[in-house]
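Thread: Newbie trying to understand structure tokens

Hi all, I'm a second-year student working on a class project, and my supervisor (Dr. K.) asked me to get a predicted structure for one chain before our next meeting. I've only ever worked with sequences, so writing a 3D structure as a token string is new to me. If someone could post the tokens and maybe explain what I'm looking at, I'd be very grateful. Here's the chain:
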Amino acid sequence: MKGKEVQEPLQPLSCIAVIPAVTSVDKDESITYEAARMLERGAAHATAYMGAELSQNPKVRMINSAQMSAAVEEVSGGFSGTITALGKKVNCDGVLITMVRRFVQRDGTELAVDAPASADFHMVLRHAPTGAMLWSADFQETQEDLLSNIFSYSKMQKRGFHWVTAEELLEQGIKQRLDECPYLK
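---
Reply by user tm_fold:
Sure, no problem. This is what the structure looks like when written as tokens:
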């Protein structure tokens, strides 16, 4: 697992637009069709889970794909221009972007696996007016058995000493990272 990065000083945000999770498919030409399909499932699951997890936060505004498309129809200025246009359109001064880079289902059951679940994503919160990064966090984990890594005991205990699915692993990572974001408090 990698950590997080917060730019100082913390800039107060009145509204954070959370856009649908994206995948690394466009950035990786070597990815197979099946792996791309799994990444898309992971991104859809991440989007749904973030929506459920952040639904009670008054600062957060979930943006669906249709709203995203409508907000950035005629944007110039590349990525930064897209963030600025989206922020203006939905009246938010922060935009949270999540990219799912790996989403691999376990091969086996919760009691025994040939290959464990694996998830990898990157989150970044950008200041909409300037495009500047305010916070970022990575999560990378492939579940390990207790004998391979004795330091994973507390994780295994929380998980009930069973092999988790890719969805469960992704959810645990998202929850952990969102809980650590100072702008969502």
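A couple of things are worth pointing out once you decode it. The chain has one domain: 4-180. The beta strands are 4-6, 16-18, 22-23, 60-62, 94-104, 107-108, 113-115, 118-127, 133-142. Feel free to ask follow-ups in this thread.
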